[in-house]
Specification:
The chain is α/β, with parallel strands linked by helices. It has a single domain, classed as Rossmann fold. About 40% of the residues lie in helices and about 15% in strands. It contains nine helices and seven strands, in the order βαβαβαβαβααβαααβ. A seven-stranded parallel beta sheet has the order 3-2-1-4-5-6-7, with helices on both faces. Helix 4 links the parallel strand 4 and strand 5. Helix 4 packs parallel to helix 6. The longest helix is centred in the middle third of the chain and has 23 residues. The model has no long low-confidence stretch (mean pLDDT about 95). Belongs to the short-chain dehydrogenases/reductases (SDR) family.
């Protein structure tokens, strides 16, 4: 695994995995042991990066999957192919989680296909480098908030009546929620909001025995990176953390599996940091 990635850039958000070099490593690291056998999971942003890695690991562990994505058909179809290669059963659901009506239809399609819902993984995101604060227009900020936090809340609203005791909600935050990022102001704000949402939901749903937790990745090699940063910054990405390299999506996915399975049955309102040793204040 290289300590640094080649400089590259994409002009489209949230990025295309098939256009990256090298492509992120999403393949599960170990044989499955049936920890999610009989479970049904929704994963937003499941077409690539961390979402794809979580989908493949969940499939290996026996879950049936509904994979949400915005518009990246080629990446989504490849994710579906890889899930089926794992022996898994999945559907693809295309649309924008910033639209509350889409979130309702996403959950309904999952229920129509699989009959229930056990795990909601809120993972879809977008980010944009802002060199100056006055570059952030109201429309730009609204777009990022609709994807990164409104969409998470809309998905929870749509799913909640269908989640039973023991169900899991897993949200994707970020290292920047804890240490900030000067060029990703609006993105960082949404990631901090996700931590607050997780803690609030965990208290609200504790009596129902629905567990809500967060994963906060550090510098992980996903399509968002070349889609957000210029080539020179991409070439340095992840090399400043103590482990001196970016992480791969399949190195983050086990945190989601832990939070989705019975191993984490005494955890709620917590955040798992997978960040190469970046030691944020929590």
């Amino acid at each position: 695994m290289p300590d640094a990635m080649p400089g590259q850039h994409q002009d489209v958000q949230p990025g295309r995995q098939h256009a990256m070099y090298p492509e992120p490593d999403c393949a599960p690291l170990y044989p499955g042991s049936g920890r999610l056998e009989g479970k049904v999971a929704i994963i937003t942003g499941g077409d690539s990066g961390i979402g794809r890695a979580v989908a493949l690991l969940f499939a290996r562990e026996g879950a049936k999957l509904a994979i949400g994505y915005l518009e990246e058909d080629r990446d989504a179809e490849e994710t579906l192919r890889l899930i089926e290669e794992e022996g898994g059963d999945a559907i693809l659901v295309k649309g924008d989680i910033g639209d509350r009506s889409f979130c309702k239809s996403f959950v309904n399609r999952t229920l129509e296909k699989f009959g229930k819902l056990d795990i909601l993984v809120n993972n879809a995101a977008e980010q944009h480098v802002r060199e100056e604060l006055d570059e952030v227009s109201e429309e730009d900020m609204t777009r990022v908030f609709k994807t990164n936090i409104f969409g998470y809340f809309f998905m929870v609203q749509a799913a909640l009546d269908h989640l039973q005791e023991g169900a899991r909600i897993i949200n994707t935050s970020s290292i920047v929620a804890y240490r900030g990022q000067a060029q990703l102001m609006d993105y960082s704000m949404t990631k901090g909001a996700i931590v607050a949402l997780t803690r609030s939901l965990s208290s609200r749903l504790a009596d129902k025995k629905i567990l809500v937790n967060t994963v906060a990745p550090g510098p992980i090699w996903t399509p968002l990176i070349p889609a957000s940063f210029p080539e020179d910054k991409v070439a340095e990405f992840g090399t400043s953390v103590p482990l001196k390299r970016p992480g791969q999506p399949n190195e983050v996915a086990p945190a989601y599996l832990f939070l989705a399975c019975e191993d984490s049955r005494y955890m709620t309102g917590q955040t798992i940091h997978v960040d190469g040793g970046d030691f944020p204040s929590s």
